[in-house]
Amino acid sequence: MARRMALFGGSFNPPGLHHLRIAEVLAREFDEVRIVPCGPRPDKPEVNSVPSAFRAALCDLTFGCLKGAVVDLFDLEQDTFTRNHALEERYQAEAEVWHVVGADWIEGGAQHRSAIHTGWEKGPELWQRSRFAILTRPGHTMDAADLPPNHVLIPLEIPGSSTLIRDSLLHRRAADHLLTKKAHRYINRYGLYRGTNPATWSRGTLEDLKCMIQTDPRNGKSVNWRDKFQPHVNEDAPDFILTLGGDGAMLRCIREYWRKRLPFFGVNAGHVGFLMNAPDQVFEQSFPPTEVIFRQLPQIYIEMETETGEIIQDYAFNDAWVERSTSQSAWLEVKVNGISRLPKLVSDGALVSTAAGSTAYARAMGASPLLADTPAWLLVGSNVLEPAHWKSALLSSDTSVEILNLECDKRPTTAYVDGVSQGAVRSIRARLSRAAAVELVFLANRDMAEKIAGIQFMR
Ligand SMILES: Nc1ncnc2c1ncn2[C@@H]1O[C@H](COP(=O)(O)OP(=O)(O)OP(=O)(O)O)[C@@H](O)[C@H]1O
Ligand SMILES: O=C(O)c1ccc[n+]([C@@H]2O[C@H](COP(=O)([O-])O)[C@@H](O)[C@H]2O)c1
Predict the structure, then answer these.
(1) What is the domain class of 211-290 according to CATH?
(2) In which pathway is this protein known to take part (predicted)?
(3) What are the φ and ψ backbone dihedral angles of 346, each rounded to 5 degrees?
């Protein structure tokens, strides 16, 4: 029998407990539930009220632990709305696709006047030929004559809507019974849906919370520290991730676990530890610390074109770069927002870095470090021969950058993402991600801002 996929699209603005309950029922009925939060949509302008990165995190936080559920962040990352007919085409090679909709979408179906007929692209055609999983919904009576030809009925009595959640949050009414605990905590941290601009950092606490621990097996100090923190571990339901090691260990940990959307609290067992907290300060107070600062930091979204023309996507927390693979210097072209700004860059390579990563390789290559919440990122050349004296550029958050190898055969280049080799590439395209962000946590009096001050004023 074919694998059956429930395609559960929606604005999930925000995703609530009602959505999770629905997804749990779907996960019992289908082999997979593919959850697709939509990007900007002409029929739902309110989805733009909260930046996509927050909506993406909330979807991961709400559905991430549900077995059989997969959250597809494509639309949020690409800032688009993929219509259901296109989603069906995208997924049909993987499974038999069933479009999930609430009963509100099929009212008037018998007269070919349902919202699917009138509001979906190719609606009438899909109505006839596609498969639908119809959810009964309190407040919406369902007439059997309105059902589409190929359907399964999922009888539910789950009250709730995102409109109600948004309204409760806006008017400062309790919403904890409408959201998962993790999503509620996250919404409060960044002041989402309050009618004001969301924050990118906030003060808070880790007190009484449980963690999962990641150590660096090659770092004895980090492995020895594990026992100290063992009483605070709950591997099954952690509230934050405790990383013991250096910045490299933190980068590896972020690469592996960022989709858990849990805050990362690092304790430095390495050298620089820019992404980490200092061990003496952590050990001198109770654990988990009562006063901390949470910072939501964007990742870089990267598309790399390999030598065979394949496009590979990835995310970088600190930086991504292209480097010469042989003794020949690299000849690169750099385009910014599609405009060729450096038609021929002769160098060892070129790097893009987030503000959070600006204290690492970007700084070593001569760029100024940026405060972590600077709404900007960096492009930096490595050992630049031509154009003489060009070193780096500060980029605004909505800038896209393309680095192209002008002589792939004679002067091959390799790409690196957060220090991990991605093999030979012809080009990379990069911009700040709209869907991938990471939360780092610092002791309140030793936050990242304080560390930057230390670098800038040589302390
Ligand atoms: N309580 C519910 N019972 C059954 N179906 C629901 C319920 N809430 C939402 N749905 C269905 O889930 C899908 C995604 O919903 P969506 O994200 O738009 O949620 P919503 O809570 O209805 O949002 P909003 O209130 O912003 O319109 C839609 O097909 C919708 O009909
Ligand atoms: O395909 C379309 O043109 C189309 C237009 C509007 C809505 N939809 C789908 O309808 C579903 C429910 O949407 P909503 O508004 O309740 O979030 C969801 O899967 C959307 O992708 C689809």
Answers:
(1) alpha beta
(2) Cofactor biosynthesis; NAD(+) biosynthesis; deamido-NAD(+) from nicotinate D-ribonucleotide: step 1/1
(3) -100, 115
Ligand 2: distance of its center to the CA of 9 in Å?
6
Ligand 2 close to Cβ of residue 124 (< 6 A): no
CATH (residue range 298-439)? 2.60.200.30
Q: What residues does each domain of the chain span?
A: 4-162, 211-290, 298-439
Q: ipTM of the assembly?
A: 0.96
Pocket test for ligand 2, best of 18, 46, 72, 83 (most atoms within 8 A of CB): 83
- From residue 431, alpha-carbon distances to 71, 77, 103, 400, 416 in Å are 22, 11, 39, 5, 15
Two domains, one topology: 4-162 and 211-290 = yes
Ligand 2 pocket member 9 (CB < 6 A)? yes
Residue nearest atom 17 in ligand 2 by C-alpha distance: 10
What is the domain class of 4-162 according to CATH? Answer: alpha beta
The bound ligand whose nearest atom lies closest to the alpha carbon of 6 is 2
Cβ of 18 less than 6 Å from ligand 1: yes
Q: Confirm or reject: Cβ of 83 under 6 Å from ligand 2.
A: yes
Burial degree of 285 (CB within 10 A; 0-12, 13-18, 19+): exposed
- pLDDT tens, residue order, the chain (459 aa): 799 999 999 999 999 999 999 999 999 999 999 999 999 888 888 888 899 999 999 999 999 999 999 999 999 999 999 999 999 999 999 999 999 999 999 999 999 999 999 999 999 999 999 999 999 988 878 899 999 999 999 999 899 999 999 999 999 999 999 999 999 999 999 999 999 999 999 999 999 999 999 999 999 999 999 999 999 999 999 999 999 999 999 999 999 999 999 999 999 998 888 999 999 999 999 999 999 999 999 999 999 999 999 999 999 999 999 999 999 999 999 999 999 999 999 999 999 999 999 988 998 898 888 988 889 999 999 999 999 999 999 999 999 999 999 999 999 999 999 999 999 999 999 999 999 999 999 999 887 777 777 777 766
